[in-house]
TrEMBL record:
Recorded GO MF terms: kynurenine-oxoglutarate transaminase activity; pyridoxal phosphate binding
Family annotation (InterPro entries): Aminotransferase_I/II_large, Kynurenine-oxoglutarate_AT, PyrdxlP-dep_Trfase, PyrdxlP-dep_Trfase_major, PyrdxlP-dep_Trfase_small
GO CC, alphabetical: cytoplasm
Record protein name field: 2-keto-4-methylthiobutyrate aminotransferase apoenzyme
Pfam families per the UniProt record, alphabetical: Aminotran_1_2
Length: 381
């Protein structure tokens, strides 16, 4: 068989989680909590399964859940949506991104992504016959390099994929940057996918500048989020995508033939929980900030260098003072095998990683005792 994705192997998340399991290491690699989502949310799934909510959901998602998503968005970002024409529930943010890419990208089109770049974007673009143009974020803060972005835009550019808060760096795109972007693409036929799965994981009082709150950008955007991150249930693979009606129509043409719909009892449970607990999203920043602060405080006793992450549940650390001789892929493997803590090397998210990149990503969506154990091991390195 002639591979359609010849350069794609097994994802780093699978590789590192497997290595962690093999070595009995603490798994701070793949991004998922080691604690459960709210008990009432989990009980609601059981209730709906027993109540017989087990057949196909509507293709566009359960009305009650779309209404809750629209209510949350109005509360958080001040945008009033038509939940029938603009909100679609999907089996995970990954499916939403895949469908949006297939709906937009034609053979020969260019798609701008920022490196380091989440690993599901490029294969989706390639399967659509498009080509990713990688624009590196500038170090050390992983900010958009506006000159390089401008230079990458041309008449073939069909799509730009934004991700804020950014995986793996945690960097945030500001409202002022969204304004700059709007001005930059105003005269082009360019659409956006805004991957905002970590929208509620922002720290130190910083606001999340959502594309949903930006009139001009929203008119050409698919905005994607994930209940998995927000409700600590990554294994539920349930997300949503919000877009103006004309874009939503095209997305749904793809979505109905990729999976048709999301999982019914999960959607019922999420709708119940969101309606009973609108405060959940408001409490998330403090919840994860205390984990970030604990992890960072404990790491001060180590030889890793870092700046506390502004968003996401990932903390980058520089290990050059410890093993400058090792690449980050080697370092991640060594740390897992020799010190019992698994992480994600950052270079794998680059088309061309900077030569001297010595960064690892740790996921701090973990119980306090896990973070303490991990930090104790890391302080001994
Ligand atoms: N985008 C980013 C930036 C992510 O980190 C993740 C996953 N964790 C996803 C998308 C996918 O989300 P989901 O699990 O809902 O498909
Ligand atoms: N998004 C998660 C991370 O960045 C991983 C999701 C996956 O395993 N595909 O760690």
């Amino acid at each position: 068989i002639v591979s359609k994705l010849p350069q794609v192997g097994t994802t780093i998340f699978t590789t590192m989680s497997q290595l962690a399991a093999e070595c009995g290491a603490l798994n701070l690699s793949q991004g998922f909590p080691d604690f459960d989502g709210p008990q009432t949310l989990r009980e609601a799934v059981c209730r709906h399964v027993i109540a017989g909510h087990n057949q196909y959901a509507p293709m566009i998602g359960l009305p009650a859940l779309r209404e809750q998503v629209a209510a949350k968005i109005e509360r958080c970002y001040g945008r009033r949506l038509d939940e029938t024409r603009e909100v679609t529930i999907t089996p995970g943010a990954t499916e939403a991104i895949f469908c949006a890419v297939q709906a937009l990208v034609q053979p020969g089109d260019e798609v701008i992504v920022f490196d380091p770049c989440y690993d599901s974007y490029e294969p989706a673009v390639q399967l659509a016959g498009g080509r990713c143009v990688h624009v590196p974020l500038s170090l050390p803060n992983f900010a958009i390099d506006w000159e390089r972005l401008e230079a990458a835009i041309n008449s073939r550019t069909r799509l730009i994929i934004l991700n804020s808060p950014h995986n793996p760096s945690g960097a945030l795109i500001s409202r002022a940057e969204l304004d700059l972007l709007a001005a930059l693409i105003r005269d082009y036929d360019i659409h956006l996918i805004s991957d905002e799965v970590y929208e509620h994981l922002v720290y130190d009082g910083a606001p999340h500048a959502s594309v949903l709150a930006h009139e001009e950008l929203y008119a050409r955007a698919f905005v994607v989020s994930s209940f998995g991150k927000t409700y600590h249930v990554t294994g539920w693979k349930t997300g949503y995508v919000v877009a103006p009606p004309d874009l939503t129509d095209e997305l749904r043409k793809v979505h109905q033939f990729v999976t048709f719909c999301g999982i019914t009892p999960l959607q019922w449970a999420l709708a119940d929980y969101m309606s009973a607990h609108p405060e959940h999203v408001d409490e998330l920043p403090a919840f994860y900030q205390s984990k970030r602060d604990l992890f960072c405080d404990l790491l001060k006793g180590s030889r890793f260098a870092f700046t506390p992450t502004p968003g996401t549940y990932f903390q980058l650390v520089d290990y050059s003072a410890i093993r400058d001789d090792l690449s980050d892929v080697e370092m991640a493997e060594w740390l897992t095998r020799e010190h019992g803590v698994a992480s994600i090397p950052v270079s794998v998210f680059y088309q061309e990683p900077p030569q001297d990149l010595r960064l690892l990503r740790f996921c701090f969506a973990k119980r306090e005792d896990t973070l303490r154990q991990a930090a104790e091991k890391l302080c001994r390195v």
